[in-house]
Sequence to fold (470 residues):
Amino acid sequence: MLPTSNSLALRLVAIAAGWGVIGLVAGGLLLSSLFRSAAERGFDQRLLADLEGVIAVAEIDCGGTFVMPKPLIAERFTRAFSGSYWQVATMASGPNTPSQPVMRSRSLWDKTLPLGKGTRAGEMVQGYAPGFLGQRLRYVERIVSIARPDTDVPDAACVGSRLFRIAVAGDLRDVEAEIEGFESTLFWSVIALGGSMTLAMALFVRLGLSPLEKISVALAAIREGRAARLEGRYPSEIQPLADELNALVRHNADVVARARTHVGNLAHFLKTPLSVLANEARASSSPLADAVNKQVGVMRRQVDHYLARARTVASAGVIGARCDVAPVIADLTRALTRIYDQQGIAISADGAEGFVFRGDRADLEEMLGNLLDNACKWAAEQVSIRVSPSQVPGRLRIVVEDDGPGLSDEQKKRVLERGERLDESKPGSGLGLGIVREIASLYGGTFALGRSASGGLSVELDLPAVDRPA
Fold:
């Protein structure tokens, strides 16, 4: 599943990837700069070597004319406009007199290098100059004093030494191509390394956060009732969280158990005095006794209603509560069949196998017991209960129908909203359907009254369920 914008994993990967990209870009720029400097430095060293080579073979004759007894025979200096050049020029005799080339490499053909910036003997100048055929030249120029060979016989009429401007130049295209190739390789290497680092970081983050995902799955299992606590060992950083969650689950179960016990004790405490009052009132025929008996009935209904609600509120919050539907229906149909067998009521159940209610068994028994008992009271011959999957995933649908007279819309409203009894001849408090609706709503379920195919009452419950295995 892809992480959302609020995902911790996405934040960690984004932060790590961001810093990684910054580091890679900075490192790439630094490497590119170092390589360019090294390439240019190597090129300059080659130019200096060529310059030293020209100086090494340079001589003058007696008249001071520049000669080269052993000319340079390197192929790059003989091919026209090859990109490697050397040139020897005289020193300017005045500020308005330019230097005149006296010898140059064959690669210059009929061109001259636009140099002449040096002014002092021994001075070396480096720079850039426009070349030929779109070339960009890097040059090294030096003013050198050239003397006659030591083997010559000294002659007062001969020139002993003379200053010449010697320059060597080279085309930068090869260096630029080398630098461009390196930068292209570096660029794609940085892209590949950045991508692999991002994938690796995503994998590391996923593996690092997997214990939290394991806890999430375990908590879902507890909530659905498939487990009672978090099982297994977790990393030392996560284990305290797992221990606290287990303690919280135990505490929740203890609180609910105590609440249910208190509710049961309260029910017993209230019902006993009410039974005594009802018995005393029935022993007398006075108007006061009738009034007491009527109010005791009201109190009983209210006690039943609010005690059922209090018990359900407690049990509905239990983490991991679940129960199989089929055994509950089987027990209820078996008991009610014995009670209503003499009235000729047949109860049929269908489709309950495999369904699991996500809630307390006592609450499911309360709901289905009220519905089946109410259906048996009003049915002519047949009561049915069907269980099927709901249209919403993670829920189940229970329908109880009878072939009795059914209820009109006005009667449904009176029964559900005011808990009014429509027929005092039937036993019970009249709160059954209201209690069922109350319990269902506390579990986030729905309750609907309708008409069955035989004309009787149809009651449909939609309740949370544990997903059945595929």
Q: What stands out?
A: The first helix runs from residue 8 to 57. The domain at 322-470 is CATH 3.30.565.10 (Heat Shock Protein 90). The mean pLDDT is 80. The chain has eight helices and 14 strands.
